[in-house]
Amino acid sequence: MTGPGTRAPAGLRVSYLLAASAGGTGRHVAMLAGGCAARGATVHVYGPATARAGLSQPGGAPPGWDFSVVDIADGPRPARDLAAVARVRRLLARDTPSVLHAHGLRAGALAALALAVPGTPQTMLAVTVHNAPPDAGPAAAVYAGLELIVARRADAVLTVSGDLAARMRRRGARLAGRALVPAPAAPAASPAEIAALRREFAGRESGSRESPGRESGSREPGGREPGGPEIVLGVGRLATQKGFGILIQAAERWQRRSVVPLVIIAGDGPLDAELRHQARTAGVAIRFLGPRRDVPALLGAADVVVVPSTWEGQPLIVQEALRAGRPLVATRVGGVADLTGGDGAALVPPGDPVALATAVTRILDDPEAAARLAAAARARAVLLPTETAAVDQVLGVYEAMTTRP
Q1: Is 348 in the same domain as 199?
Q2: 134 and 74, same structural domain?
Q3: Which end of the chain is more exposed for a tag (fewer CB within 10 A), N or C?
Q4: What pLDDT, on a 0 to 100 scale, did the predictor assign at position 263?
Q5: Per the domain annotation, does 64 fall within a domain?
Q6: Is residue 6 part of a domain?
Q7: Each residue's pLDDT tens digit, 34-48
Q8: What is the 3-class SS of 287-319, one letter each residue?
Q9: Between residues 195 and 62, which one has the greater pLDDT?
Q10: Are 51 and 144 in a shared domain?
C-alpha cells in the first residue's frame, strides 16, 4: 500500500486502460489505481477479462475502483480493435474521466483512436510505455506505427527506461518523465523459512546430474552458514524476453566445477516445456518450481540471483533481490542499471552465456566478492522507488495535464 502522500486534485477522475496484465503491468496499474483512489480521485479500470486476476490487491483488500471489460486482442485484429475502440468510447461517456491513462503502446493507440472520434468527451490522454519493440519483422513495423499514434496524440508519455524515452522522443512524444515502477513491499523471510527451503533443495535436486552439497566446514558466499548446494536462482515468466535459455547455456559451463550449482527457476509461461527439454538435453542440474508465492524466502535461500533478460524496464525481481541483499547478476539492458547503479550487481551483456557463467562463478568462488555485492545491493535498495512516490508522480502528471492552457 502507498503512504499518505499528496492528495489528488479536487474533482480528479482517472480511468486506466491496459491490454494485458502479464509481468508487472497489472500490479503496477492496480497500485496506481488504488493509490489514486485512496488520495481522493474517482478511479475506473478497463481491460480484458483475463487481466482482472493480475489486478488483484494484496490480501484481498478492496481496490477502491471498479473494473470494466474491454476485449482487446493480443495482436492486430481489425474487427475486435474497432469494437474495443467503440467500447472505450462508451465507457468514457459513462465515466467522464479527466484523464485516461493507458498502459502499453497497444492500449495507448486504441485509447488515442477512441478519443479522436468526434463527440467523445474531452479527456486528456497519458500513456506509459512498458516494453521494448521487437527487433525485426512485421511485428516491428506494427510497433513503430503504434509509437507514432501514441507520440502524436498523447498529452503525456511516461517510459520505464531511458532507451524507450529516446525512442519516443524521436517520434515527437510529449515526455512527462521516467515512470516509477516499484516492487510491492513484502516482509522479509524468516531464517527458519530460508533454512527449510535450503534443506528441501538439498534433498530434492533435479536434472540429469546430481549437484553435490558442500562438505562440512566449507564457506558460503556472503557469510551464509555451510550446508546444502550452491543455489543460483532465476525468477520470472518463462518467455523469450527473460533469457532463461541463456541461463541454461551458462549452467552447462558449471558442470566442470567440483561443486555443481543447482539452478532453480520459479515461474511459468509459454516456454515451460521447451526450457525443460533444453535442460534435460544439456544435462544440467535445474529445478523448475512453477509459480511461487514465497519469493522472499527463495531469494534468501539463493547464493546468487540471476536476471538474464534480453530487455527489462524496471524489473520487480531486481528490486526484490536488492532489498533482500542478495548477490545479483543481471544483463545490462533497459532500465536495469538505473536500479542497480554501478556496484549493486554484476552486469553482463545480454545473450552471452559465457559472460553470465563467468560472473556467477566469480561470486560463488569468492565469498568476499559475494559479501561486497550483497552490501552494495542493500545500499541501492534504499534508493529504489516507493509506491508513495509513484502515486505522487502520476498525480503531478495528471494535475499538469488538466491545468495546462
Answers
A1: yes
A2: yes
A3: C
A4: 96
A5: yes
A6: no
A7: 999 999 999 999 999
A8: EEEECCCCHHHHHHHCCEEEECCCCCCCCHHHH
A9: 195
A10: yes
Domain CATH number, residue 223: 3.40.50.2000
- Rounded to an integer, the average pLDDT of 263-275 is 97
- Whether residue 8 lies inside any domain: the answer is no
Claim to verify: residue 119 and residue 28 sit in the same structural domain: yes
Same domain as 132, residue 80: yes
CB 20 within 8 A of CB 405: no
Name residue, grid cell 531486481: 318
Residues 136/140/144/149 CA torsion (nearest 10 deg):
180
Give the residue-averaged pLDDT of 152-176. Answer: 96
CA–CA separation, 370 and 362 (whole Å)? 9
**Cell numbers placing 81:** 480493435
Cβ atoms of 290 and 268 closer than 8 Å: yes
Tell me whether residue 308 is in a domain. Answer: yes
Would you say 127 and 150 are in contact if contact means Cβ atoms under 8 Å apart?
Answer: yes
The total of structural domains in the chain comes to 2
Q: Is the pTM of this model over 0.85?
A: yes
Q: Say yes or no: 159 and 215 in one domain.
A: no
User: Are 31 and 55 within one domain?
Assistant: yes
Place of cell 492552457: 405
Question: Which structural domain, as residue segments, surrounds residue 129?
Answer: 13-182+386-403
CB 107 within 8 A of CB 17: yes
24/146 Cα distance (integer angstroms): 21
The beta strand positions in 334-403, using DSSP E, are 346-348
Q: Which residues make Cβ contacts (< 8 Å) with residue 118, sequence separation at least 6?
A: none
3-class state of residue 384 by DSSP: coil
Region class of 261: left (phi > 0), else alpha (psi between -120 and 50), else beta:
beta
